[in-house]
Putative N-acetylmannosamine-6-phosphate 2-epimerase (Streptomyces andamanensis), 228 residues
Amino acid sequence: MTLSAASVAAAVRGRLIVSCQAPPGDPMRGTPTLVALARAAAAGGAAGIRVNEPEVVAAVRAAVDLPVIGLWKDGDTGVYITPTVRHALAVAEAGAHVVAADATGRPRPDGGSFADLVAAVHAAGALVMADVATLEEGVRAAGQGADFVSTTLSGYVPGSPRRSGPDLDLVAALAAATAAPVVAEGRIGTPEEAAAALEKGAHSVVVGTAITAPTALTRRFVTRLTRP
Ligand SMILES: CC(=O)N[C@H](C=O)[C@@H](O)[C@H](O)[C@H](O)COP(=O)(O)O
């Protein structure tokens, strides 16, 4: 079912979206496991779910009655979050209400533009979340028709320093500069940081690792306990 930008925005306003993903090789990577994580997030009160790959998008759509933000990661360097129109349409066809895609302005592997991707996804009846690293990228993406702008890529592209916590300065700057709903995403580790993001002007907050990544969370404890 297609949802309007206004209805998705209303559903997630001031609320939590849980990213249920696992990196290649991780024991949590597998559709049934990721669906279970999404169901747990829904049971805990999440307002939306963010998931990777068309197969997982379709399975989560069938299992959870919440807006689904889908993406398709291809590789882990350059433009890898839903890099081409082909990836974006596969995610939309799998049932994502919103397709998240890199909007950093770097060259895309199909030579297309973010604006092309937005047009194709809208024609397919889905919405677009622009994953950006900077204020300029977010403003441009909103001007190109993105329905949501997310700080996903702050700290993950060349020239964008990675903070230990979320980039709340970018959240605030985007919220002041664009009419598109701004999503705070990336390294939000505590409920307090999630609340702070809303106070800075975020429309909604995405949390992944701190909720759905036991391998990474275990490693944090193990690293701290390792004697020098
Ligand atoms: C940079 C990148 O590829 N981010 C990805 C985007 O979908 C995911 O790997 C993150 O887990 C997600 O953004 C949520 O962030 P965090 O796990 O820090 O709460």
Summary: Strands lie at 16-19, 48-52, 68-71, 98-102, 127-131, 148-150, 182-185, 204-207. The CA atoms of residues 49 and 68 lie 5 Å apart.
